[in-house]
Design a protein that fits this description.
Blueprint: H1 2-26, E1 38-40, E2 65-67, H2 92-103, H3 112-115, H4 131-141, E3 148-150, E4 154-159, E5 166-172, E6 180-188, E7 197-202, E8 210-215, E9 221-225, E10 235-242, H5 249-256, E11 267-274, H6 285-299, E12 319-321, H7 327-334, E13 340-344, H8 362-383, H9 389-401, H10 413-444, E14 456-458, E15 461-463, E16 468-470, E17 473-475, E18 478-480, H11 492-502, E19 513-527, E20 530-546
Parallel strand pairs: 2-4, 13-19
Antiparallel strand pairs: 1-4, 3-11, 4-5, 5-10, 6-9, 6-11, 7-8, 7-10, 12-20, 13-16, 14-18, 15-17, 19-20
Helix pairs in contact: 2-4, 6-9, 6-10, 8-10
């Protein structure tokens, strides 16, 4: 009986050993470097983020499981490189689509200022039938969507010490759709800011098999065109990369693999491909919010002051913006002149799935439509005087197309919601433009006598925290100038105090130029629970006086 028991236990242990070994291999934990090379093994556990602008084939913006061997560097075990999710992760993919649209000129070719951004060596290096160029054209034609996206589920990176050749293996998930015009895009959160180098990528899955890119300080994306394949096919893209310059081999390794000594470069590989004739789902709120974010960043000033948190400010109780909102509340907000900022406090992973709707009565819906058209036209005219007007105009056109109401049927609740947000954003932009025009007019009026140092309202713009959808600034104004007689807007106390000091009593505090009237700042907070409006009272100085 004891022999039978021992034999049974031995068999059970052997079975568990085999099962555990199989699980290790199936999850990619047991990877053997190729002979003559050292493989870099890197593993990060990151929160998954859905990619804005991608469709159902895209699970989310999450740097893939990246592996390299600890033998790759003496410091790898103590200070391994990490792949942090980009700060603007919710809009990372959507921003790439926007860059693709802006990369094309009116002639259908890449703009000269986009060549370096996408590591293109020259216009002559892009054939007319280039898959990357076709993908950019498709993205430009489809203003509300972009290509479909697949995120590699794992990446194996290795480097041969003697030759400096890097090998990148991308484990791609199955796609229900055929991969038409596939482009493997090696994306970086910021431009590389490094030296110039020519890099050659080689793979049987690339088309052509060998492709050369020119990396420079402006490079942020490296596109590699691939071969089309059928759907529901599990693929591993194995690509080698090398540079002929011996001095650049270590730099290339830091860019593509990362350096254990603390490199802050993070690469995010994405496979972009065309859907072909397949119908697309309607554009998501995430796409709209990302476009709104880019638009506000383009058209509003950017001060260099440190960002200020809105959470530290006194607020009135929040009000819900949704189908149940009262008509009087929404009408009041539509007619309000207070500046508005849009905050997303729900975390990056909730950005794409955020939903918002309104149920406006017909009269108020018609008013919203008319006011939006008027404000969009007014903003278009005002933007003509500003730098970068073409890009901002195209962005506003895309936003407007996501909000326009159909004439043959009632406007959907989502479109009402977007139209309301866009109206509030354009009101803020118009207000900012008025301030900027007044400042330019003052500087340009040479016949005007020099501005006296009398207490008066001056423009002041401050930076707000970076998690805001936009704008990341607020024009709060400030008061400057002297309060000597005749003082501006002084009350009885200030007049008597000034007379008392002029009588020789210099030990007292003199009247100061301070704001005496304010208006609030409207904060539209979008989170996983809905949309809320919070008023930050006494935020923007409107009038100055001596006190």
């Amino acid at each position: 009986m004891e022999a039978v028991t021992v034999l049974y236990c031995w068999a059970l242990m052997l079975s568990w050993t085999r099962i555990c070994g199989a699980l290790q291999v199936s999850h990619g934990r047991q990877l053997i470097p190729a002979p003559g090379s050292t493989a870099a093994v890197r593993e990060d556990t990151l929160k998954s983020h859905r990619a804005v602008g991608s469709t159902g084939t895209s699970g989310g913006l999450q740097p893939p499981h990246v592996e390299h061997n600890s033998a790759y560097s003496k410091t790898s075990s103590a200070n391994p490189p990490s792949h942090h999710v980009p700060q603007n992760a919710p809009c990372f993919v959507s921003d790439i689509f926007a860059m693709l649209r802006e990369a094309l000129g009116t002639d259908g070719d890449l703009r000269n200022n986009s060549l370096a951004q996408f590591a293109v060596c020259g216009v002559s290096d892009i054939p007319s039938d280039s898959l990357f160029l076709e993908l950019a054209k498709e993205t430009s034609r489809d203003q509300t969507h972009g290509p479909d996206v697949l995120h590699p589920t794992g990446v194996l990176m290795s480097a041969e010490e003697e030759t400096g050749v890097l090998t990148l293996t991308f484990d791609l998930p199955q796609s229900p759709l055929p991969l038409l015009n596939p482009v493997l895009l090696l994306a970086f959160e910021h431009p590389l800011r490094g030296p110039n180098m020519d890099v050659t990528f080689t793979s049987q899955l690339l088309d052509p098999n060998t492709q050369t890119v020119c990396i420079s300080a402006e490079t942020q994306y490296i596109p590699l065109t691939g071969k089309a394949s059928e759907g529901n096919v599990h693929q591993k893209w194995k690509i080698s990369a090398e540079t002929k310059s011996p001095d650049m081999k270590q730099t290339l390794k830091e860019i593509l693999i990362g350096e254990e000594s603390g490199s802050n470069i993070s690469m995010y590989p994405l496979l972009l491909f065309s859907r072909g004739t397949e119908t697309r789902s309607p554009a998501s709120h995430g796409s709209f919010l990302c476009e709104l974010r880019r638009f506000l960043a383009d058209v509003l000033p950017r001060p260099d002051s440190p960002p200020i948190s809105l959470d530290s400010l006194h607020s009135l109780p929040p009000l819900t913006i949704g189908p149940s909102s009262s008509e009087s509340l929404l009408a009041g907000l539509m007619n309000s002149s207070a500046p508005t900022v849009f905050s997303f406090s729900g975390g990056p992973s909730m950005f794409q799935v955020h939903r918002g709707e309104l149920a406006l009565p017909p009269a108020l819906l018609e008013e919203l439509s008319q006011r939006l058209e008027q404000m969009a036209t007014h903003t278009m005219e005002a933007m003509k005087e500003e730098e970068g007007a073409d890009r901002a105009t195209r962005s506003l056109d895309r936003l407007h197309s996501l909000c326009v109401f159909p004439k043959a049927e009632p406007a959907a609740g989502e479109r009402q919601y977007r139209a309301f947000l866009l109206l509030k954003a354009l009101q803020t932009v118009a207000r900012s433009y008025e301030v900027q025009r007044a400042l330019r007019a003052t500087r340009a009026d040479h016949d005007r006598p020099p501005r006296s140092n009398v207490c008066s309202l001056r423009s002041l713009t401050v930076s707000l925290e970076r998690y805001l959808v936009g704008p990341n600034t607020a024009a709060i104004n400030n008061c400057h100038g002297a309060c000597a007689f005749p003082m501006l807007n002084g009350n009885n106390h200030a007049v008597l105090l000034n007379s008392h000091i002029e009588g020789g009593n210099v030990g007292e505090r003199a009247p100061c130029c301070v704001p005496v009237a304010y208006e609030g700042l409207e904060v539209v907070d979008l989170n996983e629970h809905g949309t809320y409006l919070t008023i930050k009272p006494d935020m923007v100085a409107k009038e100055c006086g001596c006190r």
